[in-house]
Amino acid sequence: MKRILSYSVVLFVLTVILLLIIPLPAALVDVAIIINMSLSMMILVTTMTIREPLEFSIFPSLLLITTLFRLGINVSTTRNILSNSGSSGQIIKAFGDFVLQGNVVVGMIIYMIIVLMQFIVITKGAERVSEVAARFTLDAMPGKQMAIDADLNSGLINEQQAKIRREKIQREADFYGSMDGATKIVKGDSVMSLITTAINLIGGSIIGIVQSGQDIGTVLNTYSIATVGDGLVGQIPSLLISTATGMIVTRAVSEGSLNEDVSKQFMGQPTAIMISGIVIAVLTVIPGMPVIQLLIISVGLIGGGYYLSRRLQAEPGLAAAGAFGGGGEASMAPEAQEEEAQEEAARPVSEEEYFKDVNNVYTLLSVEAIEMEFGYSLIPLVDETVGGRLINRIIIFRRQYAQDMGFVIPSIRLRDSSGLNTNQYCIKIKGEEVAKGEILVDYYLALEPENPEKEIDGIETIEPAYGIPSRWIRPEDRELAEIYGYTVIDPLSVLVTHLSEVVKQHAHELITRQEVIHLVENIKKTSPELVEEAFPNVVSYGLFQKILTSLLKEGVPIKDLETIIETIMETISDTGLPVKDVDSMIENIRAALKRTITRMYCEDGSMKVITMDAELERTMVGCLSKGERGYYLALSPDVLQSLVNQVTVQLKKFSGLSQSPVILTSQVMRVHFYRLIDQFYPNVRVLSFNEISNNVQIQSIGSLTLDNTGRKGA
Question: How far apart (Å, rounded) are the C-alpha atoms in residues 59 and 519?
């Protein structure tokens, strides 16, 4: 029996389909009509008592089933009307007699008004609301996902709560998307009702006059009763379902059931009720108006409004509930239930019990891509409830970095730490600490200029992102410090700047295989032919990840993926497969991106660089040795020490410039010299002549040479 009940819906749908084929006697048709009305009434009441649409998420499927049921009944009643001289059960005859009241014309007009009212007003409106709700829900999904990530990163919710919220957002999108299509079924049902009515009336008249030989008056009287009755028994459930459709798609902003929301929100506006009563009373001065009825309603509205006004003054909580459309136990019930469910899921158990489940052991193996830990006094910078704006600033940075570099920074986990001093914070990449700093929340950081007019009182420190000597100063000394030439930064900006620089420095470690596939799928939307030709048969995802990692490590944007992929394909086609010299491929890509690279280091049409002496470059080319992984630069310790010392001296010339330090070499030596100098100066950019646009003026402000020490060492 239990197994049969589990398939009850399937059996019901199969029975409905049989209605389209097998003729039913009038008595069974009456039973089907009663069931149809009962189902429609149950659905309407359900949509008015739920608190949010997802409580009745089966509605789109139910809408299809009930529509199919009505169509099956329509086919059965039409068959009976046309084959039994207008007779198709007691319900249809009773509805027809009640509406017509002996006047065929008036009855048909009333019936047409009901049909058109449903088709034009309710069905059309529900269709439009569903369409807009579906579009807005889908458009709002990215913002909702970001809000969940922000709450998760800030520690306001845990992983389980975030998972529940994400599932709810997905279910909402699926629901409104289904409703957008389901409303088209309601619209089609209304059109089909009009067609069935015409078939019953015209077909019945033809059968009665031609086949039975009855007079026109008798035929019209017989078949008009059957037509109107059949139309009403189909239109009333359809009207209820259409109304339920409109109800459920307009429940997005409610907090309780429809009855609770209407009563509480009206009760929260006594002034509007009293003003309405006064306006109704004014209508009594118009000649011919029903004075007694107007006065009764006016007195009732004014008295009711006055009573509610006194009640709201005595119970302020009721006013708040009315103003916000909820409140009290009823409106809090879903939140209380959700909190109770979350507490049940998060109820602590002993460590031994928890790790008995082997799946829980795997939770110890997860590593966050980026983490920030804070001391106690820095929590106000993060906590949004007390005005903390760190999360907003991180979102802005992530968006800006994606626009500039073409890579989306993963979510950053924010948490407090008892292992840090109260003013300290640390930044971790893949579980390991890579940077640390200290911030005084109630102070400002003043960056010292090279030649300050005067020194300002403050706590000496080092700016964490760039290592600039600085001072923590009091807020009241900010204007004075700016007058003396200091650059003053608020604590939050210091923190965000340090985080952004660390993320930029380690971005190449954050681009995972999954992210590479995501980037490829994104470019596939605009260049599907290129992606299908390249991946994965010609260019493997592993090779592509290696190339993107190398570009990001040297600060080259990967936003123009189309050019990068095309250059890879050209290089492969020129050199043949398999590709082993990835360095040459990367150099070709950098040359193809020369406009982007030039823009990053060019100011007013000129680029200031440190050049390399020709003799030094020839010596370095002669020191190239071939190993298992390609060529590498094998310099003697003396030459290496000389180069490092020279770079140290030359880089000081960039201290007063806004441009990043750039060393210019030939394309052959670029990658090898970069790997050599990156060990000592990771922020120095090494470019080749092929990576600079022709319209840029190159200005050499220093040169690296092979001095006497270098000659002897070589």
Answer: 37
DSSP SS3 for 485 = coil
Residue type, 335: E
Helix or strand run (H / E) with residue 648: helix 637-651
End-to-end CA distance of the chain: 93
Region of poorest pLDDT, from 380-384, 488-492, 527-531: 380-384
Strand 459-462, strand 662-665: pairing:
unpaired
Query: Could you read off the pLDDT of 487-503 as tens digits, one per residue?
Result: 899 999 999 999 999 99
- Tell me whether strands 412-416 and 370-374 are parallel, antiparallel or unpaired: parallel
Helices (H), 84-215: 90-100, 104-116, 124-154, 159-206
- The residue type found at 619 is T
What token pair was written down for 333? 């019930």
Indicate if the pLDDT at residue 71 is higher than 70. yes
CA distance 54 to 513: 36
- Beta bridge partner(s), residue 532: none
Both tokens of 370, joined, read: 């980026």
DSSP 383-429: -GGGT--HHHHHHHHHHHHHHHHS-PPPPEEEEE-TTS-TTEEEEEE
pLDDT of residue 263: 60
Residue 118 structure tokens: 């449903």
Amino acid code (one letter) for 235: Q
Task: Kindly report the backbone phi and psi dihedral angles of residue 582, in degrees, each rounded to the nearest multiple of 5, phi listed first.
Answer: -70, -30
Structure tokens at 439: 């911030």
Which amino acid, residue 95?
F
pLDDT tens-digit profile of 114-153? 777 766 766 666 666 666 666 666 666 666 666 676 666 6
Give, in order, the Cα–Cα distances in Å from 643 to each of 114, 290, 553, 712: 92, 104, 22, 14
CB of 373 closer than 8 Å to CB of 435 = no
Band the pLDDT of 190: cuts 50, 70, 90: low
Q: Which two tokens stand for residue 157?
A: 């919710």
Cis peptide before 380 (omega within 30 of 0): no
Provide the whole-model pTM: 0.52
Q: What CA–CA distance (Å, rounded) separates 548 from 614? A: 31
DSSP β-bridge partners for residue 626: 631
Contact by Cβ (8 Å): 654, 670: no
